Amino acid sequence: MTGKRPQTTGVTGYAEHARIADELNTLPNLLRMAGYQTASIGRSMHTYPHYRRYGFEVVEHNQDLFYRRHPHIKPMSDAGGIWSDWPHLQEHGLPVNGVSARPWHLNEQDHETNTSIRSAIEFLDRRDRESPFFMYVGTVAPHPPLLPPACYYDRYDRYGMRAPAVGDWAGSDRSPLLCPPTTQPPTSASAPRLILDGQQRRSTLAGYYGLINHFDDQLQLLLARLECDGIMRNTYILFTSDHGEMLGDHHCFRKSLPYEGSAHIPLMLRGPTIDPGTVVDQPVVLMDILPTCCDIAGIQVPDTIEGRSLLPTTRGENLGRPFVHGTHGAMRDCHDGFHYLTDGRFKYIWWVGPGREQLFDLDNDACECHDLTTESAHKDQLVTMRNALIDMIANAPEGFVQDGQLVGNIAYGSTNSHAVLTAINASTG
Predict the structure, then answer these.
(1) Residue 29, pLDDT above cutoff 60
(2) What's the pLDDT score for residue 207?
(3) The pTM of the whole model exceeds 0.90
(4) What is the pLDDT of residues 129-187, one digit of tens each?
(5) pLDDT-based confidence at 270, cuts 50/70/90?
(6) Phi, psi at residue 263, to the nearest 5°?
(7) Neighbouring-strand partners of residue 60
(8) Span 143-158, pLDDT tens digits
(9) 115, 66 in Cβ contact below 8 A?
(10) Could you report the per-residue pLDDT of 119-128, keeping only the tens digit for each?
(11) Beta-bridge partner residues of 267
């Protein structure tokens, strides 16, 4: 939405009530001002407050779509909590971040994925044919609760699944080496750390893979509609996700972690100037989406944008960015917060709480099972990436860098007040 680093926006972790400060330069608003009709369909983009458009002309959240179709199903609560009115939490009893899985309990056409895709197609029915359009389509799936339609769940429940990857650094129990004690017992369906094996693992992965397969099939409907309208030849499609799932790797479940299961997400771009089958072997980040879309639309990118257009990479050019940076503030009882860098081959992680480092060679150890920080052969690589991180976060308000060195045991929250509006102006409601 902003094309900026977390340190710039002030949102350094999961924040439930963080407003976008620079509303003029959001992705949808830049496109809207350039003449595009803009629409947000399905799952919201964690924007706050939920009714704020931030440049989208059309906003249809999945909550509204679901309750319009099922007025007899009531929200869990009228207290206004962040999960109280989400339709994918109704009636089935599965937790929003848990390992439990089962087939979808309503008719398939009422599944949240179906609803989002159908609503996107309906927007195409009524869009302004005389202007270009930008449509964001979001689904909850494959995020838990793991509720694919029965045929998709059954398809994957038949097969054996790979064992989880467990690093030599992760310990032998349910408490990974680098994380604080959790208040969730390891037997809880929502535990962030657990040993996921046996029938439970097979069921969890059947639910997760089933949701992905179901989404793939629904997405095909949307692509087919674009083909039928004859506009695919002039349309770019960008597919990505906000996070993955650990699925038991390194005794972890859920997300918000720097490891590949959580952080290595898909990003696919299709369009009339891109040769099919093009593969770009460069690390990219979500803040690159805004300048990429502006580049496609021929819009000048504001000087405040920190991401980079990915279109040149499809022509064989290099972004000229030695590392991409990831970070997350302390996440409830999951972890104390971290920073990491990767150049696509090596990944360096620095945990803010204990001040602990990790180094992985992703080319030779894609599942991050062997920590290289103590190996003399990789000392230079470790120092190079540590110094690069020091340069990158030297001015962070938390004071992570002192006298040119990383300093741990510093509180790292989900927001910094310098760029986040936390109150709604009374004059605008």
Answers:
(1) yes
(2) 97
(3) yes
(4) 999 999 999 999 999 999 999 999 999 999 878 889 999 998 766 555 555 555 566 66
(5) very high
(6) -95, -25
(7) 41
(8) 999 999 999 999 999 9
(9) yes
(10) 999 999 999 9
(11) 240
The encoded tokens of residue 9 equal: 């926006």
- For 419, the token pair is 């760029």
Sorted by where each begins, the domain ranges of the chain are 6-322
d(CA 135, CA 116): 12
Helix H, strand E, coil C: the string for the chain is CCCCCHHHHCECCCCCCCEECCHHHCHHHHHHHCCCEEEEEECCCCCCCCCCCCCCCEEEEHHHHHHHHCCCCCCCCCCCCCCCCCHHHCCCCCCCCCCCECCCCCCHHHCHHHHHHHHHHHHHHHCCCCCCEEEEEECCCCCCCECCCHHHHHHHHCCCCCCCCCCCCCCCCCCCCCCCCCCCCCCCCCCCECCCCHHHHHHHHHHHHHHHHHHHHHHHHHHHHHHHHCCHHHCCEEEECCCCCCCCHHHECCCCCCCHHHHCCCEEEECCCCCCCCCCCCCCCHHHHHHHHHHHHCCCCCCCCCCCCCHHHHCCCCCCCCCEEEEECCECCCECCEEEEECCCEEEEEECCCCEEEEEECCCCCCCCCCCCCCHHHHHHHHHHHHHHHHHCCCCCCCCEECCEECCCCCCCCECHHHEECCCCHHHC
Rounded to 5 degrees, φ, ψ at 359 are -140, 130
- Answer whether 22's CB lies under 8 Å from 2's CB: yes
Cα–Cα distance list, 83 to 16, 88, 329 (Å): 11, 10, 21
Burial 22-37 (b: 16+ CB within 10 A, else e): beebbbbbbbbeeebb
Predicted confidence (pLDDT) at residue 24 exceeds the cutoff of 90: yes
Give the pLDDT band (50/70/90) at residue 428.
very low
Q: Is residue 341 a contact partner of residue 325, using CB atoms and an 8 Å limit?
A: yes
Q: How confident is the model at residue 425 (pLDDT cuts 50, 70, 90)?
A: very low
State the residue for tokens 């180094």.
359
Q: Which two tokens stand for residue 185?
A: 């017992």
Instruction: Report domain 6-322's class.
Output: alpha beta
Tokens of 340: 């990491």
- Pair of tokens at residue 178: 């680098």
Number of residues in the chain: 429
Q: Rounded to a whole number, what is the distance in angstroms from the first to the last CA of the chain?
A: 22
The answer, yes or no, to whether the previous bond of 145 is cis (omega within 30 of 0) is yes
